[in-house]
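[RESIDUES AND BACKBONE]
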Amino acid sequence: MVNTELELTDAGAAALRAASPEIDRFNAELRALLGDSGFGTTAVVMRRLAHWES
């Protein structure tokens, strides 16, 4: 397995800062819908899917 480190450009960091309030809002709504346990389980599953290799 090869590890690669990426760094955001200044424009990328600015875009992430601009998107953060919407990301926080989405996560809060999802946590309210699923509860803390369901939110945590969903996060684990999404992480596995993101790193899944066929």
